[in-house]
Write a sequence for this structure.
């Protein structure tokens, strides 16, 4: 640094450094604001646009074939639970492997079962059922008609009978009942 600058030159240099510093600070503040706001608005407009969010029926082979990780919950974000959930969704199929007699039994039962408001959460295979949504244990007569689902739970949402895996609270099958 030079020691022979006049006081006026020092003040001009200091003010230039302050102006540049403030300019950088304003740009950083604007960028952080954009970073915080843009993803929120995208989430709001794209909230129900998932490929499986309007699924009307289906089942998952992974949910039937793999045991849940220990101490799992539908809100768990551990790699084991997230990976299993991805497997459930990836293995879901659009067709339900129930006989016509099983479907008739489900339809008869669903007519008298308590209803859940269908718009309160995503109804698709692999989706977690919120804890505040009431699910019911599979009754004995329905469990006999659906032996592979006898230990699971169910809910009726609109025109769909939804089978929920008890240990993870995830949807494993959806049967249209209309």
């Amino acid at each position: 640094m030079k020691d022979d600058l006049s006081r006026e030159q020092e003040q001009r240099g200091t003010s230039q450094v302050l102006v540049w510093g403030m300019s950088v600070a304003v740009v950083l503040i604007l960028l952080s604001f954009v970073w915080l706001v843009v993803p929120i608005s995208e989430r709001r407009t794209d909230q129900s646009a998932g490929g499986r969010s309007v699924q009307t029926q289906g089942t998952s082979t992974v949910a039937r074939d793999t045991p849940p990780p220990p101490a799992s919950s539908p809100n768990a974000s551990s790699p084991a639970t997230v990976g299993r959930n991805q497997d459930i969704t990836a293995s879901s199929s659009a067709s339900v492997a129930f006989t016509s007699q099983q479907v008739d039994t489900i339809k008869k039962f669903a007519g008298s079962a308590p209803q859940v408001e269908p718009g309160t959460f995503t109804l698709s295979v692999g989706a977690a059922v919120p804890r505040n949504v009431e699910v019911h244990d599979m009754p004995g007569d329905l469990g006999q008609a659906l032996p592979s689902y006898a230990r699971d739970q169910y809910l009726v949402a609109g025109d769909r009978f939804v089978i929920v895996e008890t240990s993870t609270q995830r949807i494993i099958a959806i049967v249209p009942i209309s």
Notes: Residues 1-47 form one domain. Residues 43-53, 80-84 have pLDDT under 50 and may be disordered. The helical segments are 7-45, 61-65, 79-90, 100-112, 140-145. The radius of gyration is 28 Å.
